[in-house]
Amino acid sequence: MYAIIYTYSMKTYKINTKQQFLSEIKDLWPITKGTLAEVYKPCIRPACKACASGKKHKAFIFSYKEKNRRRCMYVPVELVAELRQAIHNGRQLEEMMGHIGSEIIQQYRKQHGGTISRGARKPKG
């Protein structure tokens, strides 16, 4: 059984300069991209009462991508809270970058009279 923890906040960012961006991200540490799953797994002891009863043992797995391949690592219980914060911070940064992209386009439109040049079009035919 896998339970994926996911939190997301909808914050509006108004970032016009590199300095504003750096100011916004200065507190986003630790930071990572991935997911944290709480799983219940059997152990290797043949006479384990918890495994025999079907209860199993709680573990945490961090899943991430490395060179376009999905990787997983077991997470020590002592590190779970910090890793959750790092994942949350990573999602905030991704959200911020999405807002920055739209801000760049909106600023361009304001500077160029509300239009975007789509380049030369190929003639039909």
Topology:
Elements: E1 3-4, H1 18-25, E2 35-41, H2 49-52, E3 57-66, E4 69-75, H3 80-111
Antiparallel strand pairs: 1-2, 2-3, 3-4
Can you describe what's shown?
This protein has helices spanning 18-25, 49-52, 80-111, and strands at 3-4, 35-41, 57-66, 69-75. By secondary structure, the chain is of the alpha+beta class. A four-stranded antiparallel sheet has the order 1-2-3-4, with helices on one face.
Shape: elongated
Assign a percent range to the helix content.
25-40%
The structure class reads alpha+beta
- Compressed to H and E, one letter per element, the order equals EHEHEEH
| Radius of gyration, in angstroms, nearest whole number | 23 Å
- Give the overall average pLDDT: 77
Q: With helices defined by DSSP (H or I, 4 residues minimum), what is the helix count?
A: 3
Q: Give the amount of beta strand, in percent.
A: 15-25%
**Head-to-tail CA distance between termini:** 57 Å
Number of strand elements: 4
Short description:
The chain is α+β, with helices and mostly antiparallel strands.
Write out key terms for the chains shown:
about 120 residues; about 35% helix; disordered N terminus; alpha+beta
